Amino acid sequence: MKLENETAELELIAKAFQAIAKEISYGGLADALLKTALRHSGAVRGAVLLSEGGELLAKADATFPREKAKVFASQPSVREFQLPDDLSERVFMRQETVVRDDSRKGAALIDRAECPTGPNVTVLCQPLIHQGQTVGALYLESEAAPALFTPRCLSVMSMLASQAAVSFESAQLFEALRETNMWMVRGQQIGRMGSYRWNTRTLLSRASRECYRIFDIGLDINPVPFETFRACVHPDDLPDLEKALAGAVSAKSPFSHEYRVVHRDGTILHVVAVGQFDLSPAGDVELEGIITDVTEQKVSEQAVADARAALARAARLASLGELAGSIIHEVNQPLTAIRASADACLRWLAREPADTDEARRSALRVVEQSRRATNVVGGLRSLVRDSHLRFADVHVNETIEEVLVLLKRELELAGVALKTAFDETLPPIEADRVQLQQVVLNLVRNAVEAMASVDGVRALSISSRVADGHVSVSIADTGVGVDPASAEHLFAALYTTKGEGLGLGLSICRKIVVAHGGRLWAEKNTTHGATFTFTLPARQFRRLSGSN
Amino acid sequence: MSSAFVHIVDDDKAVRESLGDLLRSMNYRTTLHGSASEFLDVALPDAPACLVLDIRLPGTSGLELQEYLTRVNIRLPVILITGFGDIPMSVKGMRAGAVDFLTKPIRDQDLLDAVAAAIRMDQHRRQEVVQIAELQKQYALLTLREQQVVEHVASGLMNKQIAIELSISEVTVKMHRRSAKRKLGAKSVATLVRMVGVLHAQKRGG
């Protein structure tokens, strides 16, 4: 009988342990503990109190749970729960298990208003101790004889209590973990920043939720295969990204790269990925890092850059326009007089009889006004003479690349794909770096403008090579092309096929190239667009300033 | 020799002199002015004329001068001459009623055509002014009754209706009509109606 009892008890305890271990929330745990305890002890009422943060509860009441202690479960539920001070002291402070007969006055759970008098109650209060700390208490009341809380029962209660204490601690840890995780997820959302870990052997990535949003990948794909990731990257940015990744992997160096991501609905995001290498538990090299969605910054940066470029352009056009306008006026006035006087002269001579006096006067005016025009042109010539060239050793490829950095945004905005093919064996040449960059800048801008009205592919290829003692640079576009018949006119000042602009760009370009002893010309491409090529002598003889 | 005048206003002496030279070789009489105020200072000769006006002038601009002339009812046909980049101004000038605009440097044939057209317009306008003045003078010679009858004829009433309207006999209406036609020199009723129309238009036009 005793043995049977013991088996039943053990079974019950095992079940209770299972029930308690299953629960991960405070409420559930407290409920499970209390139900088991009530069932096993035969007590009529009970409660579980929990202290938080290691501090003991002096008093806890159900209507107003203190921050440090809460009644998580009581049965039957009561409006008020008040642990007598002395009991609280013994159980929580001294960690004693208290069993005592009490008047109803000393009971914590009973509704004193309803039953002011009656038989005494027996109270069991068992501390829940984990690693020396009282994390709570199990409180039971029985109206039966004191024999109800037998030593055996007490030992079972004690076991339950210690198991519960461990579970409460786990629940607390779990809770803390969940909170931390929630913070991280929210933080990543707010910061538009996701974390990832990429295994360089398996090429699989694990990533946080925000990464899935940034890349527009379904959350069910986990881990993410490299191909899935690749498919999200803007095709134009893929080659550079792969190059950067490969470089970082082989050097095991910290990785940082900016690229664009394309969503399934066509939305384009700008992201910055940073990372560093690390070994996985399995010994694989893994890239661990953070990807930040910088689209918004990018958009505002772009707006500022656009405004700045537009302003610079407007200022440049305005000053060029003013200059050109006044030049034209200065030349046009004598030209008007010459034309009118010459016509008049012919008409005087055509009279019957010819009015030679008038004709002579008209002819004199022609001479006078052509002198005036010559003076204007002479003044202009001194203004634009290549007296400001500063020659130095220049690496043509580098010089071009610097210009391309300046134009990156402009190209991006215009939807132009850039391809460069530089001959790495180019010798340095003697040239004016700034002027040379002016030429490249002008030619690239012209190319972009020529492609603006083209619906199809907008591709710009820039190549350099060396041949016959000359370095040559070609800038090819897929724009509207050039009419072979008028290809030479392009380089005349004030010739323009564009709606805006004054047509000074190409004439200045040619002037600079010629001043360097080179040539600049335009050709129609066989398919579409045009190619502008300039050559510069590989070995430039140093020119003296203003030796023209 | 044509008696038509071309007034040239351009601040560039060489330009206005050479244009003057060219126009004189085309048998026009010319007056040259360096600014809007110089032009306004001299009295205009009583002859068909037009104004060749540089759109860009220091002080009062060509467009402002054109506007002023319109405002004070000097109906002189205007030919604008423009330099590079003055297209928007030229458009404004054309809207304000310029006959033509020529871009510097100017082709002689363009100038000739423009000036000829402008002078023709001015001659026509001047003729009209003279005719209207003549007509007004003749109309004033009609008696009040004759004027009343003519007005009613012009508004399309039959003799009988006019008689009732004016409470006179039809025979009397016919007599006034004949007399008015003779005084105004109108050979037909149609001419008479047109004359009244012109006079009315003149009155309305101020």
TrEMBL record, chain B:
SMART domains linked to this entry: HTH_LUXR (SM00421), REC (SM00448)
GO molecular function, one term: DNA binding
Biological process according to GO: phosphorelay signal transduction system; regulation of DNA-templated transcription
Chain positions with 4-aspartylphosphate modification: D54
UniProt keyword annotations, A-Z: DNA-binding, Phosphoprotein, Transcription, Transcription regulation, Two-component regulatory system
Domain Response regulatory: 5-119
InterPro entries referenced in this protein's UniProt entry, alphabetically: CheY-like_superfamily (IPR011006), Sig_transdc_resp-reg_receiver (IPR001789), Tscrpt_reg_LuxR_C (IPR000792), WH-like_DNA-bd_sf (IPR036388)
A Pfam match: GerE
Protein name: DNA-binding response regulator
Lineage: superkingdom: Bacteria
SUPFAM superfamilies documented for this protein: CheY-like
Domain HTH luxR-type: 135-200
